Amino acid sequence: MLAGHLFIQLIPAPPSKTVIEAQSAQQRTLKYGSNMATQTISEEELMAFRQQLKEANDIVVFTGAGISTESGIPDFRGPNGIWKSIQPIDFSDFVASEEVKKESWRRKFSTTGGMNLNIDGAEPNAGHRAIAELATLGKLGSIITQNVDGLHQKSGVPEEQIIELHGNANYAACLDCSKRYELDDIRQVFLQDETLPICDHCSGSIKTATISFGQAMPVKAMEFAQQATLKCDLFMAIGSSLTVYPAAGFPRLAKQNGARLIILNNEATDLDQICDLVLHYPIGATLTAGLSLLA
After folding, report:
1. Backbone dihedral region for residue 104 (phi beyond 0: left; psi -120 to 50: alpha; all else: beta)
2. Which residues of 249-280 are buried (b: 16+ CB within 10 A; e: fewer)?
3. Is residue 128 among the annotated active site residues?
4. What is the pLDDT of residue 66?
5. CA angle in degrees (0–180, nearest 5) for 203-209-214
6. Catalytic pick from 128, 152, 166, 280?
7. What are the structural domains of the chain?
8. In terms of CB atoms within 10 Å, which of 7, 143, 196, 244 comes out highest?
9. How far apart are CA 104 and CA 86, in angstroms?
10. Running DSSP on this structure, what letter comes out for residue 272?
11. pLDDT tens digits, one per residue of 73-87
12. Greater confidence, 77 or 161?
């Protein structure tokens, strides 16, 4: 294994099983969001979802940006995603250029514009709370998340059950020694005259504790995610387009290892055809409805 990278061997899986899309006479209406838009989920789908949750003993929940859009945090790759309007900063450019470092911090502390993620004021939504309930019920093995907003922690899930593949945007860290720094301290100094933060321990560069384009995935997090995936009996991919690899390889790995696979996402993914259950419905309301039947 090369330093800074983790390679996962994935065996091609044959297309299979049940992709249930609602056509039942009995339907429930799910309401979500500020405009209370509605979609329908069949009783058949809801009962199938509930049965999967009931039978599972070790659930891995894999979350992408879609679960946090209901908390007002924009996604990155959707039709109105952040990367449609602003060019991401490559890690190599950040490391090489003081001006790029400054631009990165300008974006971080901007209160307007494309990189304003509204993370500071965001609260967990019904989807986050439902996953936290799985932890309370003792059914949650781990959360593997691509998100950097920290909302799973805020919802009450224990830190040790959360694996952050892309880091966390709520604090910063030294690129050399990994010492943690709080953003409020950096903001106070940077906004005065754009003085770049320097580590007081090793004089290394400080960056938000997120994984940037071109930056190596965190080896320990990837190893923990692989271990959790191989141990689970149910893998739920929620709110992810499943297009960013190697992270998107975990659902297929779980399926190939014998776990059942559920995808809950507003749009179709390339892995829908190998799933045991596909739900194209609002995330928060669907999770809440499924869990309500477990009581």
Report:
1. alpha
2. bbbbbbbbeebbbbbbbeeebebbebbbbbbb
3. no
4. 93
5. 95
6. 166
7. 20-73+123-166+216-295 (3.40.50.1220), 78-116+171-210 (3.30.1600.10)
8. 143
9. 12
10. G
11. 876 655 555 555 678
12. 161
Element spanning 131, H or E: helix 126-136
| Residue 161: its H or E element | none
Q: Mean pLDDT, to the nearest integer, of 133-140?
A: 96
Residue 238, beta-bridge partner list? 63, 264
Map residue 293 onto helix, strand or coil.
Answer: coil
In the predicted model, what is the mean pLDDT of residues 129-137? 97
Write out the two tokens for 17. Answer: 């099983």
Q: Which of 88, 122, 220, 84 is nearest to 165 (CA)?
A: 220
CA atoms within 13 A on the CB side of 236: 30
Structure tokens at 170: 């709520």
Give me the amino acid identity at 251: P
